[in-house]
Design brief:
The chain is mainly α. It folds into 2 domains: about 5-95, Arc Repressor Mutant, subunit A (Orthogonal Bundle); about 95-220, Arc Repressor Mutant, subunit A. It contains 11 helices and 5 strands, in the order H-H-H-E-E-H-H-E-H-H-E-E-H-H-H-H. A hairpin with a 2-residue loop joins strand 1 (about 80-85) and strand 2. It starts with 16 loop residues before the first helix and ends with a helix.
């Protein structure tokens, strides 16, 4: 093994403090981007503990990165924000942009012309899928067999096998047509229940929606 003294001093280069700080900043920005991507694609709010465990990062670092993301998304030019919800964090559209989003979605697609019961049932399926007819009826408190047939005919829902319980009831889930009608790429882009109601009113038509406020999503949120 050669003695290090044999090498010229200029050939042994130690990164400067400035270079080390620059590298640390790059790694921090990369981790912040990873965290943002995970919050974006995840359906449910994620806790700091879940993020730290799943990413194998220290909790203190996750907290620091979340704070940085929250501050970054508070800038007025950002349309979404990192929101603390039910003890966790998720990315959601800013309230001040909800009306613009609603109008744009209404402009893109023709109204679904769904009845209020059909819209309520669709909301239950969207957030609880896969779900059976008895489970839907338990949440809504009314019979839903006819509404299910309507949603199947409109290709907004489809069957998803049978549940392994007594009677083996059919499971239902939403379809690609549902995603198209509500301007979503994937199910993990489902908005909050309040935002879903706003988008639903655009699909249903303002006059009919205003006549009787939806009760299904509110009941579902309590279950």
């Amino acid at each position: 093994m050669k003695d290090m003294s044999e090498f010229p001093a200029e050939s042994i280069r130690v990164p400067s403090t400035q270079e080390a700080e620059a590298q640390a900043n790059r790694e921090r920005r990369e981790r912040r981007a990873v965290l943002e991507a995970i919050l974006y694609v995840t359906e449910d709010p994620l806790t700091i503990e879940q993020l730290a465990l799943g990413l194998e990062w220290p909790k203190a670092e996750v907290e620091e990165l979340l704070a940085a993301l929250e501050a970054e998304h508070q800038r007025p030019e950002r349309g979404v924000e990192v929101r603390a919800v039910a003890g966790g964090y998720r990315i959601a559209t800013k309230p001040e942009h909800h009306e613009a989003v609603r109008l744009f979605v209404k402009f893109l697609k023709p109204p679904l012309k769904l009845s209020l019961p059909a819209l309520e049932t669709l909301a239950v399926i969207a957030y609880k899928q896969p779900i059976t007819l008895p489970e839907i009826q338990e949440i809504r408190g009314v019979h839903a067999a006819g509404v299910i047939r309507t949603l199947l005919d409109r290709k907004l829902i489809t069957t998803a096998g049978r549940k392994a319980v007594v009677g083996r009831p059919i499971l239902y889930k939403t379809t690609r047509e549902f995603l198209l009608q509500f301007g979503l790429n994937e199910l993990n882009e489902l908005p909050t229940l309040k935002e879903f109601e706003e988008l639903s009113r655009a699909a249903l038509g303002e006059a009919e929606a205003a006549a009787a406020p939806a009760a299904g999503p509110e009941r579902m949120a309590q279950d």
